Recover the amino acids of this structure.
């Protein structure tokens, strides 16, 4: 299994911490799914200053790796400032870098993303960039020092699944050694399984779990699907074919009787 | 029975004092101020008594216990309005309306024409909605004032003091209803920041609370009469500072504008911010430590849940009944 800046994760589920009905439900979703990483937004969830201490204490108390993010940042400067604050609050070099370029689709501003990734990497951060499936951008991000890539499945919170399977498959083939995480846009566990079957290393989710009627059960469903997809990828699936292929030999049996 | 001291004269303290008086107790009420005001979280409340709508994200007890609220407020004040609540979403957020409908009960689907019949000013603005006919709302500040005045008229003392509940508990039964201020002794209490705006917009006439669903910026607007509206409320983890963020204002006003463009011309009368006191599951608790009873964690459900909690406190004291929201933890 590919590691994330030297850290091997117990499973491929990274779970967001926003929008749950209550912190108790959030904690139950983590407990039930065994998610190995918690992403947390410093801007949206905390009012941006030390006021969020209670919530951050709760996140630390989940006992999983914390991946702070720069959700809601629209410029390089905002993202860099937020990353610094995150490093201070959570005492981690990890940062999920989001630079939003467009408000309706929350599509990443890939130009700002590459620039912010370079600045943060030079400053000692380990950057998890939220990007598209564009190979050229991916290459620039690696050039900027990123050792993980996080392409979107679909726009954040849309629940549409893997919008561009061809692009995501190409990305996997193009960067065989880079840990790849599907970040955003999934709504159903089957979509997460499909992403893992493509050979992706992890899935990052928030809305699909937090906004489910029962977030804890949905988190477990995702964890189970991710495990299934991961096993399938390891097992090397058969190739699809056009004609039927009998699973038992035909010759020599009394099939005409 | 000797005098019972209630500390905190926000919605929880006033309801508890009222319920204790109704059982014949002598009550002394203590607060940092002698009149309801901006120092209390409940001053900033929306005043929606909407247990079924809240059921969209709240746990079952909120819906059930909140069902007691409307009749309680009708008995003890004259500010209750029973007009139901209306939930709408723009065409592109129709999925959120379907989700809201699935998670809640007692509503009926309403068409554009039915929305117009309920709220003429929303005619042609929304093609579908949900109507919760049995829900109610009130003006929270008027309700607090009436409860307070009623208690004083009956001879209840309201004393201005920065009280420590522990100091009073050694002298007699004491109910700590201080809300977020009790954070000094309740370490598992957290603050959830809420920001709100009060607008004056005589051009718009609405009869009942309207909830506008949106994946990121859900909003409710509660009519206060005379063209005044309360617009709320953000939910941000973390206790509030003194100021509302520009983002919160932007989001609240954008949502109001989306509900009706005439809100663009409204006068902004007030901008408010405070911390809702909440436990990890966002459910309230009653805790008893000898002669000290703590009532807290009403979260965004102060006016909705305070009547039920007040009843439970009275039943605990006078009938020896264990409140269903009493927790095991003795701090």
């Amino acid at each position: 299994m590919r590691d994330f800046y030297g850290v091997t994760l117990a499973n491929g589920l990274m779970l967001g911490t926003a929008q749950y009905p209550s912190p108790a439900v959030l904690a139950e979703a983590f407990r039930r799914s065994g998610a190995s990483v918690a992403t947390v937004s410093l801007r949206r969830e905390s009012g941006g200053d030390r006021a969020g201490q209670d919530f951050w204490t709760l996140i630390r108390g989940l006992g999983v790796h914390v991946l702070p993010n720069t959700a809601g940042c629209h410029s390089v400067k905002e993202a860099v400032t937020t990353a610094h604050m995150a490093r201070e609050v959570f005492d981690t070099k990890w940062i999920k870098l989001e630079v939003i370029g467009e408000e309706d689709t929350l599509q990443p501003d890939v130009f700002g993303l590459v620039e912010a990734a370079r600045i943060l990497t030079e400053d000692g951060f380990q950057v998890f960039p939220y990007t598209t499936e564009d190979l050229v951008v991916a290459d620039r991000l690696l050039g900027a020092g990123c050792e993980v890539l996080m392409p979107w499945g679909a726009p954040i919170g849309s629940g549409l699944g893997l919008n561009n399977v061809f692009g995501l498959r190409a990305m996997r083939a193009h960067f065989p050694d880079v840990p790849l995480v599907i970040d955003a846009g999934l709504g159903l566990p089957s979509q997460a399984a499909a992403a893992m079957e493509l050979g992706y290393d992890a899935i990052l989710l928030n809305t699909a779990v937090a906004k489910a009627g029962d977030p804890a059960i949905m988190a477990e469903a995702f964890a189970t699907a991710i495990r299934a997809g991961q096993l399938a990828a390891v097992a090397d699936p058969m190739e699809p074919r056009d004609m039927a292929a009998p699973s038992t030999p035909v010759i020599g049996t009394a099939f005409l009787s | 029975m000797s005098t019972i001291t209630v500390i905190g004269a926000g919605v929880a303290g006033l309801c508890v004092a009222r319920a204790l008086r109704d059982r014949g107790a002598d009550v002394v009420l203590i607060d940092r101020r002698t009149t309801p005001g901006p120092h209390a979280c409940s001053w900033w409340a929306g005043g929606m008594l909407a247990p079924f709508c809240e059921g969209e994200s709240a746990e079952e007890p909120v819906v059930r216990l909140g069902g007691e609220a409307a009749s309680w407020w009708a008995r003890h004040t004259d500010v209750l309005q029973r007009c139901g609540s209306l939930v709408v979403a723009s065409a592109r957020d129709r999925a959120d309306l379907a989700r809201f409908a699935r998670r809640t009960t007692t509503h009926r689907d309403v068409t554009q024409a039915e929305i117009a019949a309920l709220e003429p000013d929303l005619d042609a603005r929304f093609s579908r909605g949900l109507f919760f006919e049995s829900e109610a709302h009130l003006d929270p500040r008027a309700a607090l004032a009436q409860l307070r005045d009623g208690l004083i008229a009956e001879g209840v003392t309201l004393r201005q003091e920065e009280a420590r509940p522990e100091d009073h508990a050694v002298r007699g039964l004491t109910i700590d209803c201080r809300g977020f201020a009790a954070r000094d002794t309740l370490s598992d209490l957290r603050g959830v920041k809420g920001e709100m705006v009060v607008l004056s917009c005589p051009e718009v006439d609405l009869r009942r609370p309207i909830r506008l669903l949106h994946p990121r910026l859900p909003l409710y607007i509660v009519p206060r009469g005379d063209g005044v509206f309360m617009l709320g409320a953000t939910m941000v983890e973390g206790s509030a500072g003194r100021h509302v963020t520009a983002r919160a204002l932007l989001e609240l006003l954008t949502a109001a504008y989306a509900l009706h463009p005439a809100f663009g011309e409204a006068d902004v009368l007030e901008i408010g911010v405070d911390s809702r006191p909440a436990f990890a599951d966002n459910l309230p608790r009653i805790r008893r430590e000898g002669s000290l009873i703590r009532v807290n964690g009403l979260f965004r459900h102060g006016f909705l849940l305070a009547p039920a909690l007040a009843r439970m406190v009275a039943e605990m004291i006078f009938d020896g009944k264990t409140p269903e929201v009493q927790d095991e933890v003795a701090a």
About this structure: Chain B has a mean pLDDT of 93.
